[in-house]
Specification:
about 130 residues, 3 helices
């Protein structure tokens, strides 16, 4: 595990990824994630959190938004009550991924059909790059 994993962060609001930080309801974390991975990272602390935050990220929008996705990393993480706040940065070298291109890659990226219609944070056991 590790190198062949990525974080999928999906939101509905167009422009949400235009500025860091971003906030997620804790109940939306690990949706569409295998039970094994969800249990491994559930505590959101310590070594498992460090490992989770080391994975590359796909910052995407729900289907209805028809907006481009970006590749990047999580640079900061805080949990408070029922929310987590992440700071993030996009890879400055890699261009945005067009909506149509991402649609063609959903199977390879392990993104389910209905998954593209719900704001959530999933962990995928797939090589994003």
């Amino acid at each position: 595990m590790g190198r062949n994993m990525y974080n999928l962060l999906m939101v509905s609001k167009k422009g949400y990824w235009d500025q860091s930080p971003a906030t997620f309801d804790i109940n939306r974390i690990f949706e569409y994630t295998s039970k094994t991975l969800a249990e491994k990272y559930a505590e959101l602390q310590g070594a498992s959190l460090s490992e989770l935050l080391s994975f590359p990220c796909l910052f995407a929008y729900e289907t209805a938004s028809k907006a481009d996705a970006r590749l990047g990393v999580i640079t900061g993480f805080r949990k408070r009550g029922q929310e987590v706040r992440i700071e993030f940065a996009f890879d400055p070298v890699l261009p945005a991924i067009g909506y149509e291109t991402l649609e063609k890659l959903v199977w390879e990226l392990d993104i389910g059909e209905w998954e593209q219609n719900r704001t959530h944070w999933a962990v995928k056991e797939v090589d994003l790059l």
